[in-house]
Amino acid sequence: MNAAADGPVVVVLAGGPGLRFRGDGHKLAQRFGSSTVLGSTLSQVVAAGLPLVVVTTSALVPLAQQVVAARDIVLVPPVDSPTREPVGVGYSIAAGVSARAQARGWLLLPGDMPLVRPETLRAVREGLRQSAVVYAQHQGRRGHPVGFSQELFTELSALSGDEGVRRLLARYPGLGIEVDDLGLHHDIDTEATLAAAREHLAATLGLVGASADAPPAF
Q1: Which residues are CB-contacts of 25 (< 8 A; sequence separation ≥ 6)?
Q2: What is the pLDDT of residue 84?
Q3: Most exposed of 15, 78, 124, 130 (fewest Cβ within 10 Å)?
Q4: CA 16 to the chain's CA centroid
Q5: Helices 37-48 and 118-127 meet at what angle, rounded to 10?
Q6: Alpha-carbon gap, residue 181 to 191, rounded angstroms
Q7: pLDDT for 80
Q8: Bridge partner list, 31
């Protein structure tokens, strides 16, 4: 896919260890609908019709490959890896952006947000036609994804360690895109937030009263 011709690329960030999650296995590998947390997040991006790259570690590559091609996966070392450069969310952002350096912009989406709707992703993409920094919001509360235009490539690609994009959001006036999407606030960090996200999914699909672990068509 020609990312430069087709517009911004969604950078799905799935390289963190998920240390707050105390369940069995990595939080991104947990069952969610008929897939996993990571698989569902990637499927939402695919459903939006947007090009993507997923930044992850070797342990989660099999999950990513259930949805995306190997060419759309960027490997980063685990956070506790003894590398020369500190690994963290900033490192992952820089790796993903640099892997699609010719794109017209980038939408940053954490891999633990499987409820963000395709139309929300498309709305942020369209917002980049008006502003260099765009974010989705619901009832005035900012969420994900956050979009950056190509003019911010140098700053995004220079991020390292755990340095996220707060500095950029403080420096550049952003455009908030109001959407009817509670999913942009449902990040999965703990067993409790996973249960809440499963309940939200069941309610959305009309499965209230069904098991939160039930695998509906998704």
Answers
A1: none
A2: 63
A3: 130
A4: 12
A5: 50
A6: 22
A7: 73
A8: 36
Rounded Cα distance between 145 and 150, Å, is 16
Q: Judge whether 215 lies within some domain.
A: no
What global pTM score does this model have? 0.89
Q: Is residue 98 part of a domain?
A: yes
Residue 118, token pair as written in the block: 């395709």
CATH code for the domain of 163: 3.90.550.10
Whether pLDDT at 216 is above 70: no
pLDDT at residue 209 tops 60: no
Is 218 a domain residue?
no
Other C-beta atoms within 10 Å of 199: how many?
14
Q: In which domain, by residue range, is 165 found? A: 3-204
Measured CA to CA, the distance from residue 185 to residue 143 in angstroms comes to: 6
What mean pLDDT, rounded, does the chain reach?
88
